[in-house]
Amino acid sequence: MLDENSKYKELLNREGIKSTRHRNAILELLEESEFPLTAEQLFITLRDKTASIDLSTVYRTLDTFASKNLIIKSNRADDGKALYELNHNEHKHHLLCVGCHKLISIDDCPIGELMQTLKNKIDFDITGHKLEIYGYCHDCKKFNHTLSSDA
Amino acid sequence: MLDENSKYKELLNREGIKSTRHRNAILELLEESEFPLTAEQLFITLRDKTASIDLSTVYRTLDTFASKNLIIKSNRADDGKALYELNHNEHKHHLLCVGCHKLISIDDCPIGELMQTLKNKIDFDITGHKLEIYGYCHDCKKFNHTLSSDA
DNA sequence: AATGCAAATGCAAGGCAGTTGCAAGTGGCG
DNA sequence: CGCCACTTGCAACTGCCTTGCATTTGCATT
Ligand SMILES: [Mn+2]
Ligand SMILES: [Mn+2]
Ligand SMILES: [Zn+2]
Ligand SMILES: [Zn+2]
Question: Residue with CA nearest D11 C1'?
């Protein structure tokens, strides 16, 4: 059963792993998404959209991808849930709305050169950084304002 | 049983909660620590040092403190475990050594004014941010160098 | 195209961090 | 002291994630 879902066959074989329906579907979903997804989000989408998949397969697939550096695994700051996103090898940051949990990407790194400066000042070999910005998105901002003006 | 462990009695009463042996002990441990601790770390230290405590009490106490904003709860970026630290109301960041998991505090926020600038540029109400810097500490840097020079 | 085998999967059980219900204990107040 | 709401211990439970094992499937080779 290998119709044109084999979109990622080359990529997967290049990494020395088999091209399967599930793996292709998961890569496709991650590619379509603008922000990191939880294993459960992937699981539910796949169960509804394509043929059924087991949750453990989702986790194993994600682990495999992460070990091949195809995707990046992280943990959500507020509840610690695991998040997965395609590794575009591009440096990115997000605005996290604490009202509705929306994630908004910001394209460039606001602190890139700052890291460079810092590297020369401290006895610590910096290899990377993670910046998360919290607040209220356009929609929740309005809602918040309405609420607080009642007080 | 309220000897001089009642160091935080006033603080606790001010928040409308009772001063107990466990609560005082937990606050003391958090105050002594230079970096955030897990519930389990607190649990083990308390079990060994003072009279026994139940892990659920540790969690409930930490939740109570967090709801009063006495402490800050976060989730470790690499494994998602919950971390707790005293809320000094001071803005801090850490260098995380990916070699030995050591956390090194850096005093000032390297991006404070940058946030200010950003606030005026985007349609998002920024309330805070979290910056983590990864790399190798002085010790692990040396070790790493030794390893890579073998190749 | 058929064969063979290692890799991938489904299923069910298990592990671990954190939570909750409830009965017993304790702090703070009169 | 004596009361009572708050706190705690204990044990069961939940949710996220992992693992063992039998079965299936990709894919290389014939
Ligand atoms: Mn950056
Ligand atoms: Mn900062
Ligand atoms: Zn929002
Ligand atoms: Zn180190």
Answer: B56
Q: Tell me the chain B residues in contact with residue A144 when contact means C-beta distances shorter than 8 Å.
A: 125
**Order of strands across the sheet that contains A125-136:** A103-106, A93-97, A125-136, B125-136, B93-97, B103-106
Per-residue pLDDT of chain A (151 residues; tens, 9 = 90+): 444 558 899 999 999 999 999 999 999 999 999 889 999 999 999 998 877 999 999 999 999 999 999 999 999 888 899 999 999 888 888 888 877 777 787 777 777 777 888 778 888 888 888 888 888 888 887 766 666 554 3
Q: Which residues of A touch B111 (CB under 8 A)?
A: 110-111, 114, 131
Question: Cα A143 vs. chain centroid, distance in angstroms?
Answer: 27
Q: In the CATH hierarchy, which top-level class contains the domain B90-151?
A: alpha beta
What is the CATH T-level fold of the domain B1-89, as seen in this structure?
A: Arc Repressor Mutant, subunit A (1.10.10)
DSSP B2: -
What are the helix (H) ranges across B4-132? 9-14, 21-32, 39-49, 55-67, 112-121
3-state SS assignment for residue A129: strand
Q: From the CA of A68, how far away is ligand 4's center (Å)?
A: 25
Domain boundaries, chain B: 1-89, 90-151
Residue with tokens 């990046």: A72
Predicted structure pTM score: 0.80
